[in-house]
Design goal:
Two copies of one chain form a homodimer. The model of chain A has no long low-confidence stretch (mean pLDDT 97). In chain A, strands 1, 2, 3, 4, 7, 8, 9, 10 and 11 form a nine-stranded mixed beta sheet that branches. Chain A has a four-stranded antiparallel beta sheet with strand order 12-13-14-15, with helices on one face. Helices cover 31% and strands 16% of the residues of chain A. Chain A has one domain (6-509): Alkaline Phosphatase, subunit A. Chain A has 19 helices and 15 strands. Chain A is globular. With 525 residues, chain A is an alpha/beta fold. Chains A and B meet through α5, α12, α17, α18 and α19 of A and α5, α12, α17, α18 and α19 of B. Chains A, B: One of its GO terms (cellular component) is cytoplasm. Chains A, B: One of its GO terms (molecular function) is sulfuric ester hydrolase activity. Chains A, B: Keywords: Hydrolase, Metal-binding. Chains A, B: Pfam families: Sulfatase (PF00884).
């Protein structure tokens, strides 16, 4: 292990924490990810900072809460002067690249305002949230906006899949018995295999491209964000993963009839979304979840392939590996589909950290229940790269996991937070809220989970006695003291956001009380 | 009056709201400012967003609270992608210029990071918070960092004041009877006249430069930020203003012995600062305040001169005029010097708005007690320039004063806010706080003023029954319900900060629930 380990930052999209065998799933097969957990530390209480792709990822990449970086929903551009993982690691000699998805939206207006050309090298980095876009592919290409020259589309065409948008027509579509094309956008089709061979599927291709990057990087220290689109919808898998699991493999839906009787108004509004209404139906769960699981096992197989590749090249012992996801997937739990709210199915994420260095031996193969947040990765990576994340504590809101990974005791955070901005969703219209009031905040101390909704009453769940979060404790008013405490914690958190980003705390320390020294002699007789 | 009135945005530095005759000062002479109040509307409950130059001004220029723009103290650079008055008015055809002080600190690191050259035209605007620096002069030039080529220094030299730093040696120094130079940095000298003739003093020079700009601008609509350094320290005035007022003209110090008996810990720490210890002494007040008043009357005279100039050029009826300041000056009130805390002496500011248009006739010559904030000026100016400040309500946190000026009724804000970040001050060290915990927040509803200090108990004052703020009501616990309400208001305010700045609310409205339309067919069977 050199002083500058490589960093392999693997993200799956919409992968629930509990859909891994090592996290207790009763039927799924994820032997390679399980092996990583056995080689590293498995954080079982990790939360994303926003249970939706864009803001969650911007938090992963900036090390800052969504309230701080401001890109609070998909397609909200990240401010041009936010700093990202690439900005932090590049000065330490790292090549910091992306293969796959980021859901970064470029701030065109901000760039134009500052005269930054999107084509300049700086402009490209600003546009790609600091990553060198070795292969950027956000993985969702409706015909309306599909780029026929998307590299994966070109690749598929080279393999003989002829179409303007083979991503859709082949890699995310199936065929009926008469050869008619069945779009993967429709969940009723997702028990059928896609029209490309497994080795040409997105997960396989993305893994290949990661290998290309690693080969190209050679001896330069690298940080690769390998960011798979699957198991995100379209829920379509190649053979043999499309029917690897059956209905007997599906866990029961985490929901109760009571949840529909007197739902919280915001949750109720989400229950009316089409994705929720569909996933509330058993037929949909039975059609989708086996494929969702197959996509995860496929992903696992390719992670295994990638591990073999790293081992072959002698890099396995020199690479810090993280496996995580940007958020979960309700899959019908709580009568909801998709994500965006804060039940464990949606807000909790897998977080496995494999640090091959000797110092981490103490925690190898352990599970850790401490509260971990997505924003912890940036400081962790900075420290791994021999940087000093502490010196950036005027910007970074996460905590380096290094001491935890190294088995050092010490105080740790007491609460984790997540945020939702649902201004773009029908729920906002149903609730008749203006765009800046469609917000919600989650705070948990591990035992209690409290959710503050703007304009509506909060929710409280007891994760110890009600781990399935079926009983909202707010209406019975028996836990008002807990609610008050959690609300106070959230208030403290609001005031602690790091928005004074242009000057470091170190510099403040060294400049405190120096005005007189600098000749500004005020208050002198 | 054309559709595009000129905007004359006059700021004095450290001018207390109550040191104007039109605001009730018993002895000061400010006839020209009084005349403006008689021609316009005088807001008697206006607050700065931070009672210290830098952050207050950044709020004035961005229309955003200090918590939002992040430049929370002097010399904290404003983020390069914040938008300022110039950015907002220039698209409407305005020339937006600065004559005088901004206390803007350039974000060198941010500019370098984005490859913006400070010498480029964009770089200059980013460096000068969006103003064309027709004449920038922050007005404080200790020998340690004085620029001999400062334009005012050159000017003074041309007038025969020979020195490397004539700003200090002549314009802010006096002489004793033997001709020895007495530095204006020392308050003991401030009863003596400065060593330049009145017409060469800073206030006169700054006014001249404003006239130069107005002449140069010609028929182009302009917004001039005329930003005087005085009556800010060094408290040094030219003859005859240096001894125009005597001890009999000084208002009594607003303070009580009780305030020193059991002070709030943070206030106590500020009381130990040298400026507070000095201003607690009657000798200091008696020496400084007559000169402070003389500087204000001098300023008033030059504002009169400028009004004459505008009238002569036929521009008086075509120019929206604002007179305000960035914060007050304790001058020994509450046993404090300088500013930074939230008593009326420090946080309240003059705010006179003269709108020559017919629509404003209804309020001409009136006093208005509604709560006004510094951040209200940017939207007011945008609307005056035929812009639409509402369309910028994802960034702007102030409210356009236009409807109030036009005498329209309607709901108005219920609370005003101000913030303090005293990380750089000795008080932080005395209180043993880390740099990010030296923060305080003021909220007032006009009747009550509540102050939240991080790590210390709050304060509460009853502005109706105790307008001098001598009795902190928190220790006696008789007003816990008021405190709870104010704290809840502050919590709401924290969550309402506008940090999702890269997308407008209008765009959110038009993009709500459009994913399916754009081909992202999730949740479809």
């Amino acid at each position: 292990m050199t002083a500058k380990p490589n960093i392999l930052f693997i993200m799956a999209d919409q992968l629930r924490a509990d859909y891994l065998a090592c996290n207790g799933h009763p039927s799924i097969r994820t032997p390679h990810i399980d092996a990583l957990a056995a080689r590293g530390i498995n954080f079982t209480r990790a939360y994303c900072q926003a249970p939706v792709c864009g803001p969650s990822r911007m938090s992963f990449y900036t090390g800052r809460y969504a309230a701080s970086h401001g890109a609070s929903y998909n397609n909200v551009p990240l401010r041009v002067d936010e700093r990202t993982l690439g900005d932090h690691l590049r000065p330490h000699g790292y090549r910091v690249a992306l293969v796959g998805k980021t859901h970064m939206k470029r701030d065109d207006e901000g760039m134009a305002h500052l005269g930054i050309s999107p084509d300049s090298s700086r402009g490209v980095l600003v546009s790609q949230c600091g990553f060198e876009p070795f292969e950027r592919d956000d993985g969702l290409h409706p015909d309306q906006s599909a780029d026929p020259d998307l590299r994966y589309n070109q690749y598929l065409r080279c393999q003989g899949y002829d179409s303007r948008n083979p991503w859709h027509d082949y890699a995310n579509s199936a065929e009926d018995d008469d050869g008619n094309i069945l779009s993967g956008w429709h969940m009723r089709h997702c028990h059928r295999p896609i029209r490309v061979r497994e080795e040409h599927s997105e997960t396989a291709y993305t893994t290949n491209r990661a290998m290309d990057f690693i080969d190209e990087a050679g001896d330069t220290p690298w940080c690769l964000h390998l960011s798979y689109i699957k198991p995100h919808w379209p829920y379509m898998a190649p053979a043999p993963y499309h029917n690897m699991y059956g209905q007997e493999d599906i866990p029961h839906a985490i929901r109760s009839e009571q949840e529909r009787v007197a739902p919280h108004p915001v949750v109720d509004a989400f229950m009316q979304h089409s994705e929720s209404r569909e996933f509330a139906r058993d037929e949909v769960r039975q059609r989708v979840i086996p494929t969702y699981m197959g996509l995860i096992t496929q992903l696992d197989d390719h992670i295994g392939r990638l591990m073999g590749f790293l081992e072959e090249r002698g890099q396995l012992d020199n690479t810090l590996i993280v496996v995580t996801s940007d958020h979960g997937d309700y899959l019908g739990d709580h009568w909801l589909g998709e994500k965006e709210l804060f039940h464990e199915s949606s807000a909790r994420i897998p977080m496995i950290v494999v640090d091959p260095r000797h110092e981490a031996d103490a925690t190898r193969g352990t599970r850790d229940e401490r509260l971990v947040e997505a924003i912890d990765l940036v400081p962790t990576f900075i420290d791994a790269a021999s940087g000093n994340s502490k010196a950036l504590d005027h910007r970074l809101e996460g905590r380096s996991l290094q001491p935890v990974v190294n088995g050092q005791s010490g105080e740790w955070r007491t609460h984790a937070f997540s945020e939702s901005d649902y201004a773009w969703r029908p729920a906002r219209l149903a609730l008749q809220l203006p765009p800046d009031q469609a917000k919600a905040y989650m705070v948990t101390d591990g035992r209690w989970k409290y959710i503050h909704y703007e304009q509506h009453r909060p929710q409280l769940f007891d994760l110890q006695n009600d781990p399935e979060e079926l009983h909202d404790l707010v209406p019975d008013k028996a836990h008002d003291e807990v609610c008050r405490r959690m609300e106070a914690t959230l208030y403290d958190w609001c005031r602690e956001r790091k928005l004074r980003v242009t000057v470091s705390n170190q510099r403040i320390e060294s400049n405190t009380d120096t005005a007189h020294q600098r000749g500004y002699l005020f208050g002198i007789w």
